């Protein structure tokens, strides 16, 4: 039997149309949610993502400021830009596109962002609040994954969730959010010995590895839900995930495609966080 497709594009559309309604309500009170996106250097992939974010903002009636600076931009100058955005009442969300050039300390930059405008959910205050289950801006990709599971009525409670990848922006928080939903969570990573031994026991498998078509059906438990966070290029330069989609289609019960899976949800959650910030509410982690 062929797996059910988890349609991130359709789900993100649905969420975005709900966001647009709330943006309109805010507009009646004279408030326009504003997102500032800061981009340093000229990484072509970053440019594509950033343009996408801007387009989405505008489609939803939100304001989006793109602040672009050359590769040589100094750390001190960037910290000053952030300080100005922190103090700008019309800016509700600040996103500094990662990765940053090597001469800029990423952690210092994240620390400089006002936690009340931290729509990426990367500030230690946001991370800490998420970890202890308090209100916080949730990181967009893991939050988008949880929304997809919810949309497809997949309840993580009591399930064994295996997360491959332990980055601060995807793997680690994805495991935490699944834990909050009462999953039993296993983290795997580049030093895991016999990866398939773990993944074959996963009811829910989250892959954030960054290797094209790395996971075939030998890694998948029959009936598993497979969430592919990978954004890779295959041998023909085509966008593809970590999962060999065709190969696992008859083994998994549900699967996210790349593109059209987790990626569009990431952007929708960024919009939601910016809206929430403008509403002066914070997301609930319960
Ligand atoms: N501070 C910061 N916050 C981020 O959220 C952040 C970042 N830095 N740096 C880069 C990564 C990457 N990222 C993506 C978001 C959406 C898609 C997305 O929409 N992907 C589409 C395909 C897009 C295409 O066709 O290229 C999809 O999967 O269908 C991809 C990647 C956010 N990131």
TrEMBL record:
PROSITE patterns: THF_DHG_CYH_1, THF_DHG_CYH_2. GO terms for molecular function: methenyltetrahydrofolate cyclohydrolase activity; methylenetetrahydrofolate dehydrogenase (NADP+) activity. Keywords: Amino-acid biosynthesis, Histidine biosynthesis, Hydrolase, Methionine biosynthesis, Multifunctional enzyme, NADP, One-carbon metabolism, Oxidoreductase, Purine biosynthesis. SUPFAM superfamilies: Aminoacid dehydrogenase-like, N-terminal domain, NAD(P)-binding Rossmann-fold domains. One of its GO terms (cellular component) is cytosol. Residues 139-280 form the Tetrahydrofolate dehydrogenase/cyclohydrolase NAD(P)-binding domain. Its EC number is 1.5.1.5, 3.5.4.9. One of its GO terms (biological process) is L-histidine biosynthetic process. Pathway: One-carbon metabolism; tetrahydrofolate interconversion. Signal peptide: none annotated. NADP(+) binds at residues 165-167. Residues 6-120 form the Tetrahydrofolate dehydrogenase/cyclohydrolase catalytic domain. It catalyses: (6R)-5,10-methylene-5,6,7,8-tetrahydrofolate + NADP(+) = (6R)-5,10-methenyltetrahydrofolate + NADPH; (6R)-5,10-methenyltetrahydrofolate + H2O = (6R)-10-formyltetrahydrofolate + H(+). Belongs to the tetrahydrofolate dehydrogenase/cyclohydrolase family. Homodimer. Catalyzes the oxidation of 5,10-methylenetetrahydrofolate to 5,10-methenyltetrahydrofolate and then the hydrolysis of 5,10-methenyltetrahydrofolate to 10-formyltetrahydrofolate. This is Bifunctional protein FolD. It comes from Planococcus halotolerans.
């Amino acid at each position: 039997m062929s797996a059910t497709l988890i349609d991130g594009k359709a789900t993100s559309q649905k969420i975005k149309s709900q966001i647009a309604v709330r943006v309109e309500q805010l507009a009646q009170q004279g408030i326009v949610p504003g997102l500032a996106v800061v981009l340093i250097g000229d990484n072509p992939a970053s440019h594509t993502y950033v343009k996408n974010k801007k387009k989405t903002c505008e489609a939803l009636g939100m304001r989006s400021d793109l602040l672009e600076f050359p590769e040589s931009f100094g750390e001190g100058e960037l910290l000053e830009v952030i300080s100005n955005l922190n103090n700008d009442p019309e800016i509700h969300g600040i996103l500094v596109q990662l990765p940053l050039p090597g001469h800029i300390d990423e952690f210092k930059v994240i620390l400089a962002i006002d936690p009340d405008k931290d729509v990426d959910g990367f500030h230690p205050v946001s991370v800490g609040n998420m970890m202890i289950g308090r209100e916080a801006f949730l990181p967009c990709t893991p939050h988008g994954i949880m929304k997809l599971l919810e949309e497809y009525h997949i309840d993580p409670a009591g399930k064994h969730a295996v997360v491959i990848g332990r980055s601060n922006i995807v793997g680690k928080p994805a495991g935490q959010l699944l834990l909050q939903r009462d999953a039993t969570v296993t983290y795997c990573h580049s030093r895991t010995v016999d990866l398939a031994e773990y993944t074959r026991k996963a009811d829910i498998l989250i892959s954030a590895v960054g290797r094209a078509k790395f996971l075939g059906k030998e890694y998948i438990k029959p009936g598993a839900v497979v969430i592919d966070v990978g954004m890779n290029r295959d041998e023909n330069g085509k966008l593809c995930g970590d999962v060999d989609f065709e190969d696992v289609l008859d083994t998994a019960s549900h699967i996210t495609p790349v593109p059209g899976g987790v990626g569009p949800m990431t952007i929708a959650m960024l919009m939601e966080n910016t809206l929430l910030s403008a509403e002066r509410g914070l997301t609930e982690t319960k």
